[in-house]
Amino acid sequence: MIVAFSVTPLGVGEDVGEYVADAVRVVRESGLPNRTDAMFTSIEGEWDEVMDVVRRAVAVVEARAPRVSVVLKADIRPGVSDGLTSKVETVERHLSD
């Protein structure tokens, strides 16, 4: 399963990079395959382990912000691994044709 999610602290002003970094740190320390871009962090693994990391990433932001917004999108596809890499490689292969 791949989950792409974003955690946004509300009520802390316009500059939220420090809060987002706290959430990304939790993801990176999890040891699960992950990627972060300008809008989302994607993480790959089994349901329980991925959702636990998302929960902990939200909790670390919630500990410092009065309100938190979470956007989450999941690709649940049993039997598939290394989707973070293979999905991008497939698109790149089609672009090079």
From TrEMBL:
Pfam families: Thiamine_BP. Transmembrane segments: none annotated. Residues 3-92 form the Thiamine-binding protein domain. Belongs to the UPF0045 family. This is MTH1187 family thiamine-binding protein. It comes from Streptomyces rhizosphaericus.
